[in-house]
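Task 17 of the worksheet. Students: predict the tertiary structure of the chain below and write it out as structure tokens. Keep your answer in the requested format; marks are given for formatting as well as content.
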Amino acid sequence: MKPLALKKPGRPANPDHCARRREDILDAAVALFARQGFANTDMQELADAVGVGKGTLYRYFPSKDHLFLAAADRIMLRLRHEVDRAVAGVDEPLERITRAIRAFLRFFAERPDRVELLMQERAHFKDREKPTLVQHREVNVERWRALYRSLIGEGRVRAMSVERITNVIGDLLYGTIFTNYFAGLRKPVEAQAEDIIDVVFFGILSNAERKRQGLA
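Model answer:
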């Protein structure tokens, strides 16, 4: 009886190749889920779009649910990356805020399918305690609150709750991207950003009216 031949070890996975493949899958998933909806998206169709076998998808993501949530998470991670890139090297706090607002609006205006995916998550994963959007918002907001605390300490922003500031600005930004998605982009992103910045920084009351109201 011949001895059993030992199976030769396979070539070890290339981490860079695996990372690129994962990114390709997620990028295609965002587009497909946004276009067809979570329920109507078939994993085989996604595999065909990426040019891999269906089994490959399941090696990276054990289920369609896992894939969808990973795609939503990737959107928010990329948003953070784009905002960080926009403010890199900028020391002036108000300019950092201005650039961050522009980068945020531009990120979603360039790919409306990102907005669609975030909305679908809320519809199909209602049992989640916090949607991906909220999770990332809570993780990233503290650095902005620290920035506002420093501006208040310097007398450049009026004394008020930094939570109130970030909540209002965050609601303005997310409200804008969802309105843009439903109603269409009514004006260029830069113009929308300037409107938000102008109203947030300077308010709507004149100096004379602020004095009359006892606000100046």
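Marker's comment: The domain at 64-212 is CATH 1.10.357.10 (Tetracycline Repressor; domain 2). The two ends are 98 Å apart (CA to CA).
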